[in-house]
Amino acid sequence: MTSLDATQADERLVLTTPRSAVLLSLPIFLATAALGLWFIGQSTNFIDTAWSWLGVVFLLAGAAVSVVSLFRPTRLILTPEGFHLTGPFSPGLIPWGEVEVFTAYSEPAFLDADGLPVGGVPLYAVWRLYEASDSSKHMVSRLSRAADMPFDGALPRNIGLDPDALAELLEQWRVHYG
């Protein structure tokens, strides 16, 4: 479902989230918010009503983010200096020389007491920074390290390439320009 929207000119590559991925999320957010409003109308319990309102607020916020993403989609910009992921929690430009490795990362689900799968992390392209790098002082990196994660940041799964291919592409750029 993802497509590669890339342009390469003057040693620059831009990968963009396909608008079709954003268009798919918008009706899902709106439909589930409408369902939440229906639950609110059916509820006679204050706690259920409060939780439903909270859910509706978050779903409508997700819909608003989807609308903004239609006009300003997330982009991954690769240059000889480094990579930059645009978006609300952007770490800024991360120089290639500060990145130790790019790889694909996932965690398997575990089985609960009933034998049903629980948790797990789907496959993502991630990066690990050198310990003393300037970029390792950013909030996302500090939070990842505080949580004892084996990476400093992760890239969106819908940026145009599957996680394995994206990690391989970024690793090639890191080796070439780092």
Please provide a written account of the structure.
The protein is α+β, with helices and mostly antiparallel strands and 178 residues long. It is 41% helix and 24% strand. The protein is built from four helices and ten strands. This is PH domain-containing protein. Keywords: Membrane, Transmembrane, Transmembrane helix.
Descriptive tags:
single chain; 178 residues; alpha+beta; five-stranded antiparallel beta sheet; three-stranded antiparallel beta sheet; 41% helix; globular; membrane; PH domain-containing protein; transmembrane; transmembrane helix
Taken as a percent bin, the fraction of beta residues is: 15-25%
Unreliable residue stretches: 1-9
Series of secondary-structure elements, N-terminal to C-terminal: EEHHEEEEEEEHEH
> How would you sum up the major sheet?
5 strands, antiparallel
Q: With helices defined by DSSP (H or I, 4 residues minimum), what is the helix count?
A: 4
Large-scale geometry: globular
Radius of gyration: 19 Å
Q: Percent range for helical residues? A: 40-55%
What distance separates the N and C termini? 32 Å
Strand order of the main beta sheet, please? 1-2-3-4-5
User: How many strand elements?
Assistant: 10
Structural class: alpha+beta
Short précis:
This protein has 178 residues and is an alpha+beta fold. It is built from four helices and ten strands, in the order ββααβββββββαβα. It has two domains: 9-16 and 76-177, no CATH class; 19-71.
Chain-wise SSE layout:
Layout (H helix, E strand, L loop, with lengths): L5 E3 L4 E4 L2 H24 L3 H26 L3 E4 L3 E4 L7 E3 L3 E9 L2 E2 L5 E2 L2 E9 L9 H8 L6 E2 L8 H15 L1
Antiparallel strand pairs: 1-2, 2-3, 3-4, 4-5, 6-9, 7-8, 9-10
